[in-house]
Specification:
With 142 residues, the protein is of the alpha+beta class. The protein contains four helices and six strands; from the N terminus they run βββααββααβ.
Length: 142
């Protein structure tokens, strides 16, 4: 399986503009730049997209792990918060915190926590980030 996306950049670092497009068309010419990345201007940025990918990947992995444990969630809501710091080597993603709230009828709390831990360790985006990024999680049954 292969997935692809592309980015186009024009101009200098601070005054330039970029566009991100995915082959699926979900993102098509989505604007990004210095101010959307390092300030709070509307638009996307690579780090936000990594957080979105991690939240989606984890939620699906948790669904699979819950199924293995004999549970089915009515809903799984995951927020991934990425932390980036300026280190000696430059800007570096140093951590991602997953905050997940799941609604599971008749859930076994211990099995839920085990499933969440397995999903955190096993989703492909977690494995991609794990070598140099601290991944933490709060998993709650609602």
């Amino acid at each position: 399986m292969k997935r692809a996306a592309s980015a186009k950049w024009s101009g200098g670092l601070k005054d330039g503009r970029g566009e991100i497009t995915t082959d699926s068309g979900v993102l098509s010419g989505s604007r990004y730049g210095f101010t959307t990345r390092f300030e709070n201007e509307a638009g996307t940025n690579p780090e936000e997209l990594i957080a979105a990918a991690h939240a989606g990947c984890f939620s699906m992995a948790l669904s699979g792990q819950l199924g293995n444990a004999g549970m089915t969630a009515t809903s799984i809501d995951t927020k991934a918060t990425l932390t980036m710091e300026r280190l000696e080597a430059g800007w570096t993603v140093v951590g991602i915190h997953l905050d997940v709230v799941a609604v599971i009828p008749d859930a076994d709390a211990e099995k839920f926590q085990t499933a969440a831990a397995n999903a955190k360790a096993g989703c492909p985006i977690s494995r991609l980030l794990a070598p140099g990024t601290a991944i933490t999680m709060t998993a709650t049954l609602a």
